[in-house]
Write a structure and sequence with these properties.
Layout (H helix, E strand, L loop, with lengths): L6 H18 L3 H7 L4 H9 L18 H12 L3 H21 L2 H12 L5 E4 L15 E5 L2 E12 L6 E7 L9 E7 L5 E3 L13 E12 L3 E2 L5 H37 L1 E2 L2 E2 L4 H29 L5 H26 L9 H8 L10 H13 L1
Parallel strand pairs: 1-4
Antiparallel strand pairs: 2-3, 3-7, 4-5, 5-8, 6-7, 9-10
Helix pairs in contact: 1-4, 4-5, 4-7, 4-8, 5-6, 5-7, 7-8, 7-9, 8-9, 9-10, 9-11
Length: 379
């Protein structure tokens, strides 16, 4: 396996880094403070072809491999975790389910808009009583002629307030357990679909997160994604891909902490010399530099397996677990290196310190990933 990026991928990485330094760095703190979706950044990313870079060309995409999308996600998160998270989310939890399970009509309806950054998607799975235990969901979709009528409540739903299309999961046959769950593509504005005001979150505040209520929400049968009973399989497939996105985002955060730690430690003088000369600081930075390489290899390996059509679920869990916990460790060290300055609101490492907690929770907690990994080696 060759984990060296191609010349084209290195060029894309370089271009995204240049974009991030010029367009994201100046506004990242403000996005966090105002807790707003960075529409202007995604418009520019779409102009650069980065929103649909891995979508098939027939749907307006760039036709590259999935690994390239993850490289872009990492570089964006290196400057702003919210922007990186939303980029990976767009492919993993919205684009991937439609591309993999949608029919041709659904793909042609939704993919070009998503690829061009003109549409925003939302993945509505989690419920107040169903987080890690997806099968505990209570939202139902009852067949009524040529329609399905949905009732239930979803929570912690990304992009719900601004989404053009929702990937929704509901039981069409509760008695069948997980095999009775189905998935639907529901357009915004559908009567009976209502999103609440977004939650005021600890971190990744540029990602708007809300509750979504379905009350007698009737949708045509052609809105079903896949077949009746495919919902659980679709959800698990999307989460596998989304976990690689979280891993790439986490790696970007760790790399960003390393960047900030190197720059600060060379400039900060104590006892008449830069703190970079102190062994304690050197060890912090050495560990950070080593772990970011290990994290990058893990997420790239999972993406490589997906691109090759190989099983990648366990690799995705390993990458998500290691990369997220690695980022959590090193955001703490980055704040420690900067001392009081790192503890002040508005500093980049303080923002990363808050952002990274989502990585240990979203797309399956660290504990859930350990269950998956343990199950794969103990069977």
């Amino acid at each position: 396996m060759d984990l060296m990026l191609s010349e084209e991928q290195e060029l894309i990485r370089s271009n995204v880094r240049e974009f991030a330094l010029k367009s994201i760095e100046p506004v990242a703190a403000k996005i966090d403070q105002e807790s707003r979706h960075p529409f202007e950044l995604f418009e520019k990313l779409a102009e650069l072809g980065m929103m649909g870079i891995s979508y098939p060309t027939q749907y307006g995409g760039g036709g590259t491999d999935f690994l390239t999308t993850m490289v872009v996600t990492e570089e964006l998160a290196r400057s702003c975790a919210s922007t990186g998270f939303l980029h990976g989310y767009s492919y993993g939890l919205v684009g991937h389910p439609i591309l993999t399970f949608g029919n041709e009509e659904q793909k042609r309806k939704w993919m070009p808009g998503l690829a061009a950054g003109k549409m925003v998607g939302s993945f509505a799975l989690t419920e107040p009583g169903a987080g890690t235990d997806v099968s505990a969901a209570t939202t139902t979709a009852v067949k009524n002629g040529d329609e399905y009528v949905l009732n239930g409540t979803k929570t912690f739903i990304t992009n719900a307030l601004i989404a053009d299309v929702f990937v929704v999961f509901a039981y069409t046959d509760r008695s069948a357990g997980a095999k009775g769950m189905s998935s639907f593509l529901i357009p915004k504005g559908t009567p009976g679909l209502n999103a609440s005001q977004h939650f005021d979150k600890l971190g990744v505040r540029g990602s708007l997160t809300s509750e979504v209520v379905f009350k007698d929400c009737a949708v045509p049968a052609e809105c079903m994604l896949g077949k009746e009973g495919d919902g659980f399989r679709i959800a698990m497939s999307a989460l596998d891909v989304g976990r690689i996105g979280i891993a790439a985002m986490s790696t970007g955060i760790t790399q960003g902490c390393l960047d900030e730690s190197i720059e600060y430690s060379k400039q900060r003088v104590q006892f008449k010399k830069p703190i970079a000369s102190q062994q304690a600081i050197q060890w912090f930075i050495a560990n950070m530099a080593t772990d970011v390489d290990a994290a990058r290899f893990l997420y790239m390996n999972a993406a490589f397996l997906k691109d090759k059509g190989k099983p990648f679920s366990v690799a995705a869990s390993k990458a998500k677990l290691f990369c997220s916990e690695c980022a959590a460790r090193h955001t703490t060290k980055a704040v420690q290196i900067q001392g009081g300055y790192g503890f002040v609101k508005g500093s980049k490492v303080e923002r990363f310190y808050r952002d990274v907690k989502l990585a240990e929770i979203g797309e399956g907690t660290s504990e859930a990933q350990r269950m998956i990994i343990a199950g794969s080696v103990l069977r």
